[in-house]
Structure formats: structure tokens, C-alpha cells
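Researcher: I'm preparing a figure for a lab meeting and need a structural model of a single chain. I don't have an experimental structure, so a prediction will have to do for now. The sequence is pasted below. Please return the structure as C-alpha cells so I can convert it later.
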Amino acid sequence: MSLNARVAVAAVVALLASPLWLPLTPWLWWSRRRDRRAGAAAGYRALSARQAQTIAAHAEATLQTPPPGGWQQVARNVDAYLAAVRSPRHWRTMILLTLLEHAPRLRGKAPLSRLPLPQRTAFLERHMATTRGLLAIPALVRQLVRMGYYTDPRIAKGLGFVTVAERRQPAQRRPNPAAALQRAVG
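Model: Understood. Here is the structure written out cell by cell.
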């Protein structure tokens, strides 16, 4: 089943559950608005404060080496990317981040960003490493987290990663194929 089909199924389920959600609508609207303001106050342009916490919590649980700016730096990198890229599917990313934050609640646990690190790590390893079922949808966020982590040049340098530009040898040190052929032929 494709991602769009899974989102459609989730939308149908949400529509069928709408009589339950209708009384909560004012509270959800107020909570989302407050969270967006807190994100803007923290300097995020595309993410809300809760979504940034979700990304940082996911990164801390799944990646080994903390970035120089702390785990919030991963969320800042993702925020910069989302703010720079205009996409008609931007809303889907925000929904996926919200689903990831609340996915542990399906198992009777606290939201992801509030779980202690060992429980968060165990939850992500057990449930988010799958491509099956409803938990496959928020599992797609791990690529976004990895992108936010590995695109930071300070992180790449700290891990010993050498970029393609740095791998290239200076022109004077490059082997000359004609000279090498001349030496081989004699």
C-alpha cells in the first residue's frame, strides 16, 4: 500500500471517529496555535515547538554521536530545510511528525519527546523500524531526522566524513595517464 493510500485510510478512520473529536476541536485548535507560537519564539520557521522536540528526541534515541549544537541542532537543520523548500506535501510532513510524537500513546506510553531515553530507544527500535501497519507512516520521519543530522558540516567533520570536494587531489598531484603509459611501455 502506498503512502497516499495509507494517509487516505487514516483520514477515513479519523472521519469515522469525528463525533469523538468534535468536542475536542476548540482545545486542539488552541493547543496547536500555542505550540506554533512557542516554535516561532524559539526561532523555528516551519516547525512547531513540539515537532522540534520530536525530531530532537528521535535523533537522540537513534543516532550515536551528539552534534556540536546539541540534539536541537538536528531539529534546526530540518526546520531550515522545510522552510527553504516549498512543497504541496509540506502538510504531510507536519502530520507525520505529530503522529510520531503520539505513536507511543497507542502502546499506553507517554508522547515520544517525554519518554526516558532507554524507553524511547526501545520503542523506536521495536515499532518504528517497520514498513508494515499504521506505524509505518511515522517511521518515514527517520529519513528526515537523518537528513537533519548528516547535512551539518560540523557533524560530518566530527564523524570523519570527507566530502567529494575534499577528496579531490590538487591538479599538480594528479597522475598523468600519458606519462604513466610512457613509463609502462618504456
